[in-house]
Amino acid sequence: MTRAPKGIFVGLSTLDVVQLVDQIPAADEKVVARAVSTAAGGPAANAAVAFAALGGVGRLVTRVGADPAGVLVRADLVARHLELINSADPEDAATTVVTALITAATGERAVVSAADHGRSASALARPADAAGDRVDAVADGSGDVAVDVAVDVV
Length: 154
Fold this sequence. Notes:
By secondary structure, the chain is an alpha/beta fold. The protein is 15% helix and 31% strand. It has a four-stranded parallel sheet. The radius of gyration is 17 Å and the shape is globular.
């Protein structure tokens, strides 16, 4: 019997608000989106979601606040079978929100994001795993993230 691979992903998680538009609006112009979706995003979260979708057992070390955006991010990650290890006190953290406008015809995009200011994983937890298991670690490198995860490789 083959054991599912385990992965630890460390870094930024965001709430992504993606809107499909016919054109990116000019200054002082308003456009109506064809479609809107929201989901957990960010480099580390996206990698962890893909890993879990391919059958891996994923842990995500990130910062998610207790704010409404954080509630949505947490629910999305849990629904995708990820273990969330919060690297900050959720009551003191604000979840980063990213808005992306995607042009339907070309796929070009315009992205607006709140500056994270190095908060995404500045106080990293040390995720423990069962003794003897091999764990692969992936860090996204966003901002000034100091990655210090202990990994036991058999």
